[in-house]
Amino acid sequence: QTDVESTLLRTLVVEAETRASASEASYEEARAEYAKQLKLAEDRLQNYERETEIDSQETLQFWQRVMQSSASSVLEKHVKCSTLELLGQPGKFAFVFKALKQDSLPEKPCQVKLFSKRWARVAIKEWSFGEIFSDFPGILAVGGQILLHSDADQGIAKLLLSGMDDGKFRPLTRSALPDQYICLF
């Protein structure tokens, strides 16, 4: 090799190293900016999740207070309570009953799902899914009836206790049965 070729090669290597160093510096700057933006996004997400959880808790507490002060014995206005039959407990959140509708000729059966106020969030989700997916086979849509029922006369409690005795559902670790229910028809 001649000195000219060697100098040319050294110049090319130096230029390549310079470009590589500049690229590495640019990459590190981009990586640092990305890390900064990712941290900001994670912080915003955590704040949003925290605010959403607080909103959710406040909403639940609000509706539990509304139920406590406003629920009344309204189930008998919609179904013949003497025909209520416990079908079971699908999952741990609600009880499903069958009954005849009040003031329907000919008499029409209906199903009503009762959630304790503790499971208001689940009732809302179930209602929402029923509204969205009501056109799908096998999805029982809520027919528009949503009630806050107070079991002041303990009629529902007696049916539930009888259902436990009959083995229609196994009691969970409840110390008492609810006295107010969200009813979805």
Structural class: alpha+beta
How many strand units?
5
How would you describe the oligomerization state of the chains in this entry?
single chain
Helix content: 40-55%
Instruction: Please state the average pLDDT score.
Output: 86
Tell me the number of helical segments per DSSP (H or I, 4 or more residues long): 3
Helix and strand string, N-terminal first? Answer: HEEEHEHE
> What distance lies between the first and last C-alpha atoms, to the nearest angstrom?
93 Å
Main sheet specs: 5 strands, antiparallel
Q: Any idea what the shape is?
A: rod-shaped
**Strand order, sheet with most strands:** 1-2-3-5-4
The radius of gyration is 32 Å
Strand content: 15-25%
Give unreliable regions as ranges: none
What does this structure look like?
This protein is an alpha+beta fold and 185 residues long. Helices cover 50% and strands 16% of the residues. The protein has a 5-stranded antiparallel sheet with strand order 1-2-3-5-4, with helices on both faces. Strand 1 and strand 2 form a beta hairpin. The N and C termini lie far apart (93 Å). The model has no long low-confidence stretch (mean pLDDT 86).
Topology:
Elements lengths: L2 H68 L14 E4 L5 E7 L8 E8 L3 H13 L13 E5 L4 H12 L13 E5 L1
How would you summarize what this structure contains?
With 185 residues, this protein is α+β, with helices and mostly antiparallel strands. The protein contains three helices and five strands; from the N terminus they run H-E-E-E-H-E-H-E. It has a five-stranded antiparallel beta sheet with strand order 1-2-3-5-4, sandwiched between helices.
